[in-house]
Design brief:
- With 213 residues, this protein is an alpha/beta fold.
- It has a single domain, classed as Vaccinia Virus protein VP39 (Rossmann fold, 3-Layer(aba) Sandwich), CATH 3.40.50.
- 24% of the residues lie in helices and 23% in strands.
- The protein is built from six helices and nine strands, in the order βααβαβαββαβαβββ.
- The strands form two sheets. A seven-stranded mixed beta sheet has the order 4-3-2-5-6-8-7.
- The longest helix is centred in the middle third of the chain and has 14 residues.
- The protein is globular.
- 39% of the residues are buried.
- The N terminus and C terminus are likely disordered.
Length: 213
Amino acid sequence: MVGGGRHEVGEGKPRNRINLDPVKRLSGKPQSDIEPYVRKGQVVADLGCNKGYYTFALAECVGPEGRVYAVDLKEDYIRVLEKRANGLGYGNVELHASSASDLSFIRDESVDFVLANGLLCNMAEHRQQAVNEIKRILAPTGQAYLSLGGPPPLGFVDGAEWERILAGFRVERRGGFFQKWAVVSRKDDGKRPSAVCEDKRPRFLRFRKRLGE
């Protein structure tokens, strides 16, 4: 499970490691982006996985003993990812063509890390159901990374709704006014400090094996 003590004290504001910008992604390293949040053997959910930019990096980080639920509403993306997963030999990726508002194929409190990168802002409806599903599947000691691509007209979630969404979680780290991202956990786990960490940054975990090797 994702436990406490994952961060080191550092100077400055908390950094957003997950990259939403598709242009910057071209030279990015997705595995190093998500390594601070995920460990071997964990169960993770990549919601709104799109074309799988983070899916196989997550699969690499959790290893064969872990599991990745890759979920996207577009069946074409899921079919492409299925071919890639089979070709690369990733047997720990479970693919589902579904809305994030219906994750009935994932058990309650079974996911250690939820990646919802740019998900909610792209949902024209059923956003609260998706938030409820994230809460349901998240393990008591798990974490979720939520982010928005931008406020309307760039997305469907405005600042007020974003704050309402975060109010339903324990906010551990978050971006500022212009950076709509947050690392959150369940409010009812009773194991984490309630203060938002504004002066900490992730400890970068290092894995020898690279994506695709």
